[in-house]
Design a protein that fits this description.
The complex is a heterodimer of chains A (about 425) and B (about 375). Chain A has about 425 residues and is mostly helical. Chain A has 15 helices and seven strands. In chain A, the strands form three sheets. Chain A has a three-stranded mixed β-sheet. A two-stranded antiparallel sheet of chain A has the order 4-5. Chain B is globular, with a radius of gyration of 22 Å. Classes of the chains: A mainly alpha (about 425), B mainly alpha (about 375).
């Protein structure tokens, strides 16, 4: 869509960013290099685990030099072969940099950080899978937020009234699927604009869940119980990987399974091939006898079921209660994760974990009580982190990521 | 197509049929509202409420007395102005869900102008409105620039900007070391300092608590201004062309990226003016929980009016009326205010999927060009 613009390119912006950041790191840290008693950051790996002690100023200066080198290289024309990996390395180095800087003079547990990232990335990854299912079949689904909210509210209500938390999870999934059928009816059968249809669902979800909460949930006084922790015997004993991937709550495991299954179904089964065909070229798919409407309905329903499960993560796995608007934009961040992953399940998982890291970092920085220029950073600035990260990622990547060709267009025979 | 339409129209005098066909598009929103209210009554009845008492309360609370009407008008003003902003975006093919954040951005600028400067009202009030307009425009332009330069979809970016604006406003209000906009005299720390008397909009007091302020006149003026802008100016034409067919616009020499940024800025400007109206006419300060969900409400109003500026005036009044009446409805029937949110969502559903309404009431199908088409994927490539 954007016309080929003159002036600066994306590469130059990224290179400029790393050059400036590197210079900033060198300027603030190089001065403390010769200090007699250097500040150190202790990075722990697991509770009974190794602790690596890193000299803060030295490591930050070294990273700063790497950033500047990569940035300058990025400005040199025709140096793509060398500068692309250098810039990627710089991008990856951002994560330890933030941790070393924030925990200067203190200790921070890296494993906890990673597991928090995985935990907080769970609803985003699920939402991204929901987005992939809908968009791969050619239906833009910006209603994931509303479907999550509905799942969270009705799942919690079902838990309160039946007393069985697993029934709550089932209800969340079912309601997500049910409300996605409204999106299907509006956008597939009635050929309403898909963004408008999604917005309608989002408005409807806010109203229905608020009504449900004030009319029924508030008085019932249940809740404050969350899904139990599960430890997979044997596998959880593996050092580092064990506590990360084999200890957690059920919906987290569900997410890991759904990511893998989504990939397998989309790319290795007949149904997946049909879904992608309908999303790329519905006319051709129709010509060879695929029922476009049916495929889209089922895929949108799958999308809703997954989004409903993501909703259960909020009310039943994490908080143990339902609050108005508790999804806080995660459904939209999930869409950004999906675009980040170029509509591929594992890529979207990576994107979700990036945003999960932004969330985890926000709470971690609050705990570490980070200071800039002697004054503590206001919490509100830290809360903004995931949203800013979403915008930066979206702006940096979208021009290069192209989604399914037919997404957004109702199919007219 | 013409034959099909004729076959479905009810038989009657030729003149009547012509009028019917001419105005049937107008009928759809009216019937959508009616259908949504019927479904709302069903829902209230099924969950054990008294729907008749609820609806009588709703009517009396919104249009039943001079004071109720004044309340409704005041409540509707931001919806009308923000709805106009969203409609301007729609015309350019942009989907601005960010009215809420833009309103906050505008309101913050108004509070700064209203508390820092000391001016006579003749200057202070227009300056406040301009500050609000600029604040909203700048905040929305971020999403516009990102869309024009990188193709990042404005739906996600405006939502993210909403959350960012709310958090930053919260910080501006609640920061105690040092106080930025917060009021040291206010113990709860939930609002900014009050703006100067000279920056407050004049109005007519109705009842004890309601002040029918200047904002509604500004809203009406903006409605006609927007109508004129879209239909009679070159820029308005460029904006509409870019919205209908970006490729044709590009071929005709219109700079599409420039149009996108301009349309977003104008859209946000409206929301900023609405913020100015709320600060200068209603609260005289800015609260942290100022206007939640406004972004969606503004979209709803614009859709209900099918992005027609004059229609937005009425759609906004309906929206404000429903919310104003909801309070009395809550008292009379013991129902949560959220019932109204559901009714509003149903209204939008029936307006968006007008085939349902047309099918129920046997209204001819819409003709080509009547539908609103917004989404074109995520703008990659």
């Amino acid at each position: 869509m954007p016309e080929r613009r003159r002036g600066v390119t994306r590469r130059q912006i990224i290179a400029g960013f790393f050059t400036l950041l590197g210079l900033l790191l060198i300027a603030t840290n190089a001065g403390g290099l010769g200090a007699a008693d250097p500040t150190t950051t202790r990075l722990g790996f697991g509770v009974p685990g190794p602790v690596i002690e890193v000299p803060t100023t030295l490591s930050l200066t070294v990273i700063g030099v790497i950033f500047v080198a990569a940035g300058v290289l990025g400005f040199v024309p025709a140096s793509e072969q060398a500068s692309t990996p250098a810039l990627w390395l710089s991008g990856v180095l951002l994560f330890p940099t933030v941790l070393i800087w924030a925990a200067a003079g203190k200790q921070t547990n890296v494993i906890t950080m990673v597991s928090e990232t995985l935990r907080l990335g769970t609803p985003i990854a699920l939402g991204a899978m929901a987005g992939i299912w809908a968009e791969r079949s050619g239906v833009v689904n910006i209603a994931i937020e509303g479907m999550m909210l509905t799942g969270a509210a009705f799942g919690f209500a079902a838990f309160v009234f039946t007393g069985n938390i697993w029934l709550g999870v089932l209800a969340a999934i079912a309601l997500g699927g049910l409300i996605s059928l409204i999106h299907g009816a509006l956008s597939i059968t009635f050929k309403t604009d898909q963004v408008i249809s999604g917005t309608v669902i989002n408005i409807l979800a806010i109203g229905v869940t608020g009504y449900l909460r004030r009319q029924f949930i508030v008085d019932s006084g249940g809740g404050r119980v969350t899904l139990p922790d599960i430890t997979i015997p044997g596998l959880s004993q593996i050092p580092i990987l064990g506590p990360l991937f084999f200890v957690g709550k059920p919906i987290f495991f569900g997410m890991l399974i759904i990511v893998v299954v989504t990939h397998l179904v989309l790319f290795f089964t007949r149904w997946g091939l049909r879904t992608r065909a309908v999303g790329e070229n519905p006319k051709a798919a129709d010509t060879v006898g695929i029922n476009v409407t049916r495929v889209r309905y089922i895929d949108v329903a799958i999308s809703g079921l997954i989004a409903g499960l993501a909703g259960a993560w909020f009310s039943l796995e994490t908080v143990g209660n339902f609050d108005d608007g508790m999804t806080a934009g995660k459904g939209f961040i999930a869409l950004a994760a999906m675009i980040f992953g170029k509509w591929m399940p594992f890529g979207a998982f990576g994107g979700a974990m990036l945003f999960g890291f932004a969330e985890a970092l926000q709470t971690r920085l609050q705990i570490l009580n980070v200071q800039i220029a002697g004054t503590p950073v206001p919490n509100q600035f830290l809360q903004v982190l995931p949203y800013v990260a979403t915008m930066v990622v979206l702006a940096g990547l979208i021009g290069r990521a192209v989604g399914p060709a037919a997404a957004g267009k109702p199919y007219e025979k | 197509m013409a034959q099909a339409v004729e076959g479905r129209t009810p038989s009657g005098p030729a003149g009547f049929r012509a009028i019917y066909e001419r105005y049937s598009p107008l009928l759809v929103p009216v019937l959508a509202v009616f259908t949504a209210l019927v479904l709302g009554a069903l829902m209230i009845g099924l969950t054990g409420g008294d729907w008749l008492a609820a609806y009588i309360g709703l009517w009396q609370g919104s249009f039943g007395s001079p004071r109720a009407i004044a309340d409704t008008v005041v409540r509707s003003t931001p919806f009308i102005i923000c709805g106009l902003g969203v409609a301007l975006g729609f015309k350019a093919g942009l989907f601005n869900i960010g009215a809420e954040g833009q309103l906050y951005a505008g309101a913050v600028c108004v509070v700064v102008v209203g508390t820092v400067l000391q001016l006579p009202p003749v200057l202070h009030i227009p300056l406040g409105i301009i500050a609000g307009a600029l604040g909203g425009a700048a905040w929305a332009a971020i999403a516009g620039i990102l869309k024009a330069r990188t193709g990042a979809h404005e739906v996600i970016n405006t939502i993210m900007l909403n959350y960012i604006a709310i958090r930053l406003t919260d910080w501006l209000i609640k920061s105690k070391t040092p106080y930025i906009l917060g009021d040291p005299a206010d113990a709860s720390g939930a609002r900014t300092r009050f703006i100067a008397d000279s920056a407050r909009m004049p109005g007519i007091p109705v009842g004890d608590t309601t002040m029918l302020h200047l904002g509604i006149l500004i809203a009406v003026a903006l409605v006609f201004l927007a109508d004129w802008f879209l239909k009679r100016t070159t820029v308005g034409f460029e904006l509409r062309t870019a919205g209908v067919n970006a490729n044709a616009a590009r071929y005709a020499g219109i700079s599409v990226p420039r149009t996108i940024v301009l349309a977003m800025a104008l859209s946000g400007m409206m929301a900023g003016i609405a913020g100015a109206g709320e600060v200068m006419g209603v609260r005289y300060a800015l609260n942290a929980d100022f206007f939640s969900g406004l972004g969606f409400d503004a979209i709803a109003v614009a859709l209900l009016a099918r992005t027609n500026p004059i229609g937005i005036l009425f759609a906004g009044l309906l929206w404000g009326g429903l919310l104003t009446g909801a309070r009395l409805m809550q008292v009379r029937a013991g129902l949560s205010i959220d019932v109204i949110k559901i009714v509003q969502a149903l209204i939008i559903m029936f307006v968006a999927a007008d085939q349902i309404v047309r099918f129920i009431y046997r209204i001819p199908q819409r003709r080509a060009g009547e539908e609103t088409m917004i989404s074109k994927g995520w703008g990659g490539g």
